[in-house]
Write a structure and sequence with these properties.
transmembrane; transmembrane helix; membrane; about 80% helix; about 60 residues; 3 helices
């Protein structure tokens, strides 16, 4: 559940910046958090890990 937490926190951090713009962005906070949390949860279920993503990214950068 590490990726689910990371994506949920990322969603909160991104969307909290919208709070200053009014009420409708508050709805976007919930939507963004739910979407990113779901993506992270799905990646956890599929067995992906942060180490896997890091190794893959570094391999692409190194080529």
């Amino acid at each position: 559940m590490k990726l689910a937490g990371i994506f949920a926190v990322a969603g909160l951090i991104i969307s909290i910046s919208w709070v200053a713009w009014g009420f409708l962005p508050m709805l976007a906070i919930l939507l963004t958090t739910a979407i990113l949390g779901t993506i992270g949860y799905a990646l956890d279920i599929l067995g992906y890990s942060l180490n896997h993503f890091t190794r893959k990214l570094l391999a692409k950068i190194g080529d």
